[in-house]
C-alpha cells in the first residue's frame, strides 16, 4: 500500500519530553519524596518538570555552568 505525503510538519521535542516525564510520573515521585509546602504556588514535581524543559530548550545557566568562567 503506497502512502502519499502532502505536507511535513516539524514536531518539537519538548512536548515529547514532557509526555515521557508524565508517563514516568516523575512529578508524583518527587512530590511523594518532598511534600508540598502550603505557601508554595507550584509543586516541587511540576517545578522539576519545568526545569528539565527549560534546560532542554536551549541556553540555560545551569546546563552550561562548566563552560562559564568564574
Would you mind describing this structure in some detail?
The N and C termini lie far apart (60 Å). The protein is an all-alpha fold and 70 residues long. It has helices at 13-23, 26-33, 44-57. The protein is built from 3 helices and no strands. The mean pLDDT is 80. The protein is elongated.
What attributes characterize this protein structure?
3 helices; mainly alpha; single chain; elongated; 70 residues
Distance between the termini: 60 Å
Helix content: 40-55%
Average of the residue pLDDT scores: 80
Number of DSSP strand runs: 0
CA-based gyration radius: 18 Å
Helix-strand makeup class: mainly alpha
What is the makeup of the main sheet? none
Note the quaternary state here: single chain
* Element-by-element helix/strand order: HHH
Strand content: under 5%
Tell me the number of helical segments per DSSP (H or I, 4 or more residues long).
3
C-alpha geometry: elongated
Low-confidence stretches: none
Question: Could you provide a short overview of the structure?
Answer:
The chain has 70 residues and is an all-alpha fold.
Amino acid at each position: 500500500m503506497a502512502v502519499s505525503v502532502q505536507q511535513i510538519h516539524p514536531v518539537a521535542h519538548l512536548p515529547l519530553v514532557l509526555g515521557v516525564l508524565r508517563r514516568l510520573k516523575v512529578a508524583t515521585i518527587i512530590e511523594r519524596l518532598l511534600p508540598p509546602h502550603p505557601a508554595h504556588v507550584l509543586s516541587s514535581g511540576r517545578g522539576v518538570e519545568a526545569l528539565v524543559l527549560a534546560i532542554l530548550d536551549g541556553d540555560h545557566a545551569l546546563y552550561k555552568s562548566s563552560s562559564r568562567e568564574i
